[in-house]
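Regression test attached.
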Amino acid sequence: MGTQTILEMKNIEKEYFGNKVLKGVNLTVKPGEIHALLGENGAGKSTLMNILFGMPVIHSTGGFNGEIIFDGAPVSLKSPKEAMDLGIGMVHQEFMLIPGFTITENIKLNREITKHNPFSRVMGEKLKTLDTEQMNKDARKALDTLGIGIDEWMKVAGLPVGYMQFVEIAREIDKSNMKLLVFDEPTAVLAESEADTLLAAMKKIAASGIAILFITHRLDEVMSTADQVTILRDGELVATMKKEETTVMQLAELMVGRKVEKLGKEKKENTQQEEIIMEIRNLKVGMPGEEVKGIDLEIYQGEIIGLGGLAGQGKIGIANGIMGLYPAEGEVLLKGKKIQLNNPKASLNSHLAFVSEDRRGVGLLLDTSIELNIVITAMQAQKKFLKRFGFFDQMDGKATREHALKMIEDLDIRCRGPQQITRRLSGGNQQKVCIARALTLEPNILFVSEPTRGIDIGAKKLVLDLLVKLNRELGMTIVMTSSELGELRSICDRIAIITEGKIECILEPEASDADFGLAMAGEYKKLRSKEAVIS
Amino acid sequence: MSEMNVKIETKVIQKPDYRKKAKQILLENIVPILFIIICLIGVKLAKQPPLYILNELVARVARNSFIVLALIIPVLAGMGLNFAIVLGAMAGQIAIIAVTHWKITGLAGLLTTVLLCTPFAIIFGYLTGKLLNKTKGQEMITSMILGFFANGLYQLLFLFLVGTIIPMKNPVLVLSAGVGIKNTIDLTAVKYSLDNIFKLSMTKTMIAFGVLCVAVMIVHLAYRVFIKKSKPQNMIKYLVYTGIFAAIGTVGLMIMNTKSVYNMVLLPIVTLVVIGLLCLFNVFIVKTKLGQEFRTVGQDMHIAKVSGIHVDKVRVIAIIISTVLAAWGQIIFLQNIGTLNTYGSHEQVGMFAAAALLIGGASVTKATIGHALMGTILLHTLFIVSPQAGKNLLGSAEIGEYFRSFVAYGVIGVSLGLHAWKHQVQSKKKTS
C-alpha cells in the first residue's frame, strides 16, 4: 500500500473512574522517524502508551475511545502480545532483563530458536532443544547493528547499566517484524557518554526504516535527535511540531503551561525573621527509585518550602531520608543540633513529623480507629497518652478521646466518630488523619509528601488550605514535596526543583513557566549560566 | 574460536584475585564441606568396618536418590523446596497397596504400580500446582502444610473408607474388623523387584562404567571433529573427563585382582541406571524450551509474564513433574525396604529429601544434580554412623538418633535462614 504513516492515533480519550486523563489526543508517526513525546508526570504519556500496547489495565478500566491505525489498517489491541505481533516494541524504563541469564538468552527470551529431538516429536513442541549456536549468532547480529562490542555469552548480572539498556534494545530489533519502537525515558539511567551512544544507535535504527517514539524529559536530547515533537499536558495535546521550528525555551514553556491558581495567600510581608531552623548538608539517601545524591538546603523558620521535580528524580527521598526511613548519609542540623540519621526514633524525638506519600501503606493503620491512628506515634515516641504502671503502660483512653475529638473538629475530619476505622474514610479525610497525627507530635517542622495524591479536587483544596492555615496561624514550618507543580506554586514561599538527586535551582513561585520547565528538565543551570555569560 | 578467547580473558581477569575466588568457592560450598567433616568424624568414632558402611551406603543411595532428584525442577522454576512431594509418595503408596491386593508380583507388579500411580500423581500435582499459584511467594510453607492436610485425607481413605465405601476383602491387608488397612504391609510381591534384576560387583561396575564413558567421550569427539567438522571447543575438559573415567576403570580393575573384600559389594545396576536416566532427564529438560521457561519463571516471574510465558501453567507443569517423580521414587524406595508402613512411610519424605538436597549445597533458589547426589550420600553416611558413633561417644545409641533428626531439621532451618540473610545483604548492597 505504501503507507505514509506507520501509526496514527486519532482522538484518543480515556477515563479512569470518571477522571479524564486523555482528552482527544492525536498522534501520527511516520516510518523511519524519531518522534519525541514530551510532558510532565501525569500528562498522559504512559496512558497513551498503555493504550498503544493494549495493556490489561486499560481494558479492565473500561477501555478507551478513539481509533488506532497501524500500518494502514485500523487495529484494536487487546493485549501486549497482539501489539508485539503487529511489530510494536517497547524498551522499558525499568529493565525487563533476567540477571542470571546470558545476553543471548535475554535477547531471545521466549523467542528461543529450537530444533527437534526424538522426544519432542512425540511429546510436543515444548520439549524441543534450544539451538544455542543459532541464538548466539542472531544475538551477535543484533548487537552489531547497534554497534555494541559486548560479548553475547556474558551474563547480564554485573553489566554496566548502559549495556543493559542496549541488550534491551537488541532484543527489540532482533524481532524480525519490528516496525515501531517505543523508548520510555531510555536515557534517564544513563551516563552522558552512554546516552550519546544510545542516541546514535537510535538514529541508526530509524535509518533502517523503523519508526521510533521517544519519551523523555531531557530537552537537549529532543533537539539533537528527534524529527517531530508532540507535547502533552494534562491529557491534552498541546502542540505537534517539527524540531526545526522550535526551541528549548518554547518546549519548556509548553510542557509546564500556566495552571497556577493562587489560594488566597498573600505574600508574607515580614521578611525580618529569616532564622534558619534546619540545615541540610550533602544529604544522600538510598531510596530505590528516588535516590538523593547530595543536597544542601537551608530551611527558614515559618516558611512553606516546596520540593518539586519529576518522578524518580529524588524529591521524595529527601523527607524519607531525614526521617530515617531509608538509609541516608550526610548532615542534618535542627536549630544547630545534629540529628542522628537512619534512626526514625531520633527524628521523631527531635520533633520532626512526617506525612508520608504512601498514605495507605506507611501512613495509616487502615484497620484501626481514627483516634488510635492520631495518637499512636506520639504514644510510641513521646510516651504521651499513656498511663504509666511500671512495665505495663496502658493507653489513656480518656485523654486520647479528647485529643481525637479536638483534632476532628479542628481539621474538620468528616467521619462517624473517633472510633471509625480509617480504611472507610475518603482519601482527603485519611490525609487529614495523617496530618492530625503529625500535629500531635507538636512538630518543629512538618514534612508533607504528596499530600494531594489520589484525592479528588475538592478535598485537595481543603488539604492545601489546611497547610496554609497551619503555617499562617501557628507559624509552622512546612516542607512540602509534591509532583504537582501547580499546587506547590499556589502555597509555597520557595520551591526547590530536584533533578537527578540534586537541587537544580530554588525558584520563587512567581517565576516564569519557562524557568520551571527548564529546571525540571535539568537545563536551568546550563542555560541560565550561558545567558549570564553572554549578557 | 570466540570460546577460546573467552577462556583466555577470564583467566587473565581471575589471576589477580585468585585467593578471593578460592574463598568464595569455599564460602559457597560451606555446607557440604562442613558435613563432609562431620561425616568423617562420625565414621572415625563409629569404628564400623568400611565394608559395612559402603554396603549400607550403596543400598541407601540407590533407594533414596530418586526422590531427592524429584525436588530439582521446582527449585529451578523458583518455587523453592517442594515439600508437597509427600503427595507424590502417597500416590505411590496407593498404587503399591492396590498392586499388593491384586497380587501381581515381580517386575510386572512393579511396572503396574508405576503405571497406576502416575495418573494419581498427575492429579495431585495439578491440584498442588493450582494451590501454589494462589500463594506465590509462600510456596514452601504452603506445600508443607498441604502435605499435613493430605495426610489427613490419606488416613481417612485407608482407615475408614476402605472396607466401608471401597469394598475390599483381603485378610492380609485389611484389619480384622474389616475396615481399614493394616499398619504394616509386607511387600513380598514387589520386594527387590527392581534391585535384583541385575546385580554386579562394585569393581566390575567400575570397570564397565569407566570403559563405557571413555568410549562415549571418544565417539562424541569423533562425531564432533569428523562429521560436524567443528573444532572441539574445550580439549582440556575432554582430556580431564576421559582421564577421570579411565582412572575409575583402572582402580576397579586393580581392586578386582587383589581379592579385596570390596569385591563383595554388589550394586543394584538397574536401579542405578534408572537414577542415571533421571539425571539425564533433568539435564535434558533444562536444555529444552520448557526448561528455559522454568528458568525464566524461576528468575523473574514478572519478566516471564511480560515476555509472553504462561507463568502459572509453567509452574503447574513443574510441580506435576516433581510429584510424578516423587511417586516413582517412593516406589523405588519401598521395593527396596520391602515393608510398607501404611501411615508413616510417606510422612517424612519431604523433610528428608529437602534436607539431603540442602546438605549437598543447594539453596532454595539453586539446586543441581550434583547437589542432590552429594547430599544423599552425606546425609545417609551420617545416618549410618551416627547411632554407633553416639554409642561409642556417649554410651547411648539414642543420642546418635537424636543427632540425626536434629541435623535433618536443623539444616533446613539454617539453610532457609541463610537464604533470607543473603537476600537482605543483596538488597542492602543495592540501596547503598
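Expected vs. actual: identical. Chain A has two domains: 7-246, 276-534.
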